[in-house]
Specification:
Radius of gyration: 17 Å
Number of domains: 1
Helix content: 10-25%
Strand order of the largest sheet: 11-14-1-13-12
Largest sheet: 5 strands, mixed
Length: 206
């Protein structure tokens, strides 16, 4: 369940956090379209804001513990959702429900309310030119492999001290999506109970 670059000589046990990299499926919008879920709030850079919950049929693989949703969002099953709230400092506000056409919740989108301190400098991520209209900025991860996306991520001691059990990165990447970072104890929960779900290690750089 742990992605590691073969050319990088890191010990997995030295990781201090983990980036979610679920690849089990792509989760559809169900019986609604893109514009019923997200809308542009800047016509120049086409930044999207989600204003509605995903809708999906029960048959869309919703029994899987974790999955990649459309447009790089991530989600977890109701079982995982319940355990994360029960065992960790994760709240109901850190999820959005995904409902079927009957209105039943069949999955949960991960939407962390906590944002990490910036980590672009310790990772060598390149800031792109901010949007001239809204000022939003994207970053380019120069280490990302476009085929398997198994890059190594670093955080500083300051960021580690501010780490929650479930986090968004401050930095936004292509299409303004953020990476999701979980604490080591949340990763260990997944490793024990759902070992097929993939994560990338996050290491401390002081």
């Amino acid at each position: 369940m742990l992605n590691m670059k073969k050319k990088e000589m890191f010990r997995a046990e030295d990781a201090v956090a983990y980036r979610i990299h679920f690849t089990s499926m792509v989760y559809g919008y169900g019986n609604v379209g893109w514009d019923e879920i997200k809308q542009e709030d800047c016509k120049r850079c086409r930044h999207l804001v989600q204003f509605n919950d995903y809708l999906a049929p029960r048959s869309a693989g919703t029994k899987k513990a974790g999955a990649q949703l459309d447009t790089w969002d991530y989600g977890v099953s109701a079982e995982v959702h319940n355990e994360l709230i029960k065992q960790f400092n994760i709240r109901e506000q850190d999820f959005r429900p995904c409902r079927n056409k009957k209105g039943e919740i069949v999955y949960y989108q991960l939407v962390p309310q906590h944002t990490l301190l910036p980590i672009a400098n310790v990772n060598g991520w390149t800031p792109l030119k901010p949007c001239s209209s809204c000022g939003r900025q994207q970053y380019r991860n120069n280490n990302k492999n476009s085929l398997d996306n198994d890059d190594i991520v670093y955080i500083s001691k300051e960021t580690l001290d501010d780490l929650h059990d479930l986090n968004f990165t401050f930095e936004m990447f292509e299409m303004y999506f953020r990476d999701l970072i979980v604490s080591k104890r949340v990763y260990e929960f997944f490793a024990q109970h759902y070992p097929r779900l993939l994560f990338d290690p996050v290491f401390l750089k002081e």
